[in-house]
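Subject line: Sequence and fold of a protein, written as structure tokens
Body of memo: The sequence and its backbone structure tokens, given next.
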Amino acid sequence: MLYMVIVPIIPDYLRRVNAWDVSRFYEHSSKFINGTWYNTSTEVDAYYEGESTSLGFLFACKAMVQLFANPISGTLIDRVGYVLPMVFGLFVMFVSTSTFAFGETYSLLFTARCMQGVGSAFADTAALAMIADRFTEETERNRALGIALAFISFGFLFAPPFGGILYEWKGKELPFLCLAFFALFDAGMILLISGGTNPRRPRVASPKGGLHTSIWRLFIDPHVLIISGALIMSNVSLAFLEPTIATWMEDYMNASQWQQGIVWLPGFFPHILGVYMCVKLSNEFPRTQYVYAGIGLVIIGANSCVIPACTTFAALILPICGMCFGIACVDTALIPSLSYLVDVRYTSVYGSVYAIADISYAFAYAFGPVLAGGMVRIVGFTALNIIVGLANVLYAPMVYFLREIYYEQAEFSARMKEKSKLIDHQKDCVENYGFNEGSSTIRQFKAM
């Protein structure tokens, strides 16, 4: 919610506090009434110097900071566990969001926004890594990560109307104080549930050696790069659309302010549908997740190309819902694949690999708002959406190369089940007969 909640609030607020130098343009007219000339001036336009660029950097700086903070957070999470980094990230978000509530200058808001990026880098990565660590069975992990992604989508799509309504009702402070309270409450609940400890499954050395795989080693894995590229491509469509669609709606379909804010909310329901379908299909037909990711990229690309052709508010909702459905397919299929990858090839510690996933999201949302405005001025809104749509479609065949992960993961799961049966058999022999039958067989599986 922190990324999108500022969209309906900050542009209007900064204008109200005169953060920009304004050039106003007036239309002058004269009227002759009862033998007297009356001159009137009507404001017809206003130019806020530096507003577009400054707002673009304010929107993007959170994601830019996440790009640099995630390698640090991922490595730290791998070494110390998940609870403490998550609580630290939530506390940083509480402080920064409270600062956002009471900040009145652009520089203070920019600083608070950057602090939110640091908090998100720790909290988001630790949360996904903890889920992967807690749920080791494939169907449970798919379901748990799907639920997490559904709530991420809810926050992203619900934040603009949430922020806009509370801002109109009680001003800038209320929506940010609500989010700050949620962050502090969440941190307290995590400490309460964990008992102040930092639990984690015991780390087992990987076949390639070592208890910890560096984030830089994961970065050069070709399958990690393909997944990261797919996550970037799927989110670039929204990252470019978010800062440009409001102006386009106002200019080309005369959309009202409430329509500009509410246009994202219906996309939550197809996103939930996409998550549900992908989880069910992944559990029913294992080793086919890459297919759903490819289909999702094609759906995103097709709907991105359709958006400029919409002429009414109702028609625009349909392709946005289609894009959200496609993004759900890509995220739900590929986010669990990162944990499978480290299970099979490296060490079952997930901080670094989910830091890479967060970097992928941050990359899209760091450069999307900054580049979108300039590209719209150069090539136009229609051409920009067609370019982004075609890029998604052309990238879709790349996910075919991920099929190897799922076959490796199936073999790995089979070996682990066999090893578990042998260990249980050894325990039964010791308990019932007093001898260690099967220990020699178990040694054959030590290297698994």
